[in-house]
Amino acid sequence: MANSYFQFQQFRIEQGDCAQKVSTDACLLGAAADLAGASRVLDLGTGTGLLALMVAQRAPAAAIEAIEIDPAAAAQAARNVAASPWASRVVVRPLSLAAYAATRPAPFSHIVCNPPFFRRSLAPPDAARATARHEGTGSLTFDDIVAFAAEYLTTTGTLTVLLPPPEMAQFAQAAAAAGLPAQARLTVRHRPGGRATRAIWQFGRAAPARPVARELFIKSPDDLSYSPDFKELLQDFYLEFAPVG
């Protein structure tokens, strides 16, 4: 059973009321997303509030909106935000994406999202977990996310998404069709030589001649320790990577 909380260096995530717990995936997305010039950021499907708080820590000038369709998760995210150092800059809204769009929010400089991605597998019996993990179970769909971003990103705004590689290929196709081509691609592998397990891609209105492509290995080649790049990426968040002294 997952712990009821996850302690980071500067904030704590209580997660007992959330279907999706703190994961390496979400931490990677929160740390790797390019937030250059962030002024107004949307965490789409915030769950515990983790991404919103990572953005708040990394982008001190940004105002952050976080939406979550599950009422229990939204309430827990709001409590996590209230207990953090950035409560004045993060707002959690217990709304679906459609309901939030109906409020006609101001444009965003950045949108981050770790969307549901099990499109063809059997949905788990728990309704909240199904909504969090499976596209098409009353939650976010790829088309919904792309359409919202195409309407509500600023001219130079970016959408950063984490998905498994096959689903990312489908998402990228939908994004490109909506005028949001891929600008940067980060491939995540457990260790050198391993298969690609996750993709973190950035989309925006401007199409580069060649998207920036990078790789990140979570573990070292011997699989006994974290890689230097992984440690560097999470050094401001994970307690075990905090400087000593």
Write the element-wise H/E pattern from the N-terminal end onward.
EEHEHEHEHEHHEHEEEH
Mean pLDDT across the residues is 91
Share of helix, binned: 25-40%
The proportion of residues in beta strands is 15-25%
Low-confidence stretches: 118-138
Rg (C-alpha, Å): 17 Å
Task: Supply the CATH architecture.
Answer: 3-Layer(aba) Sandwich
Number of helices: 8
Structural class: alpha/beta
Largest sheet: 8 strands, mixed
Distance between the termini: 33 Å
CATH class: Alpha Beta
Count of individual beta strands: 10
Query: What is the molecular shape?
Result: globular
Q: For this structure, what is the CATH homologous superfamily?
A: Vaccinia Virus protein VP39
Summed up, the domain count is 1
CATH topology: Rossmann fold
Instruction: Please state how the strands of the largest beta sheet are arranged side by side.
Output: 5-4-3-6-7-9-8-10
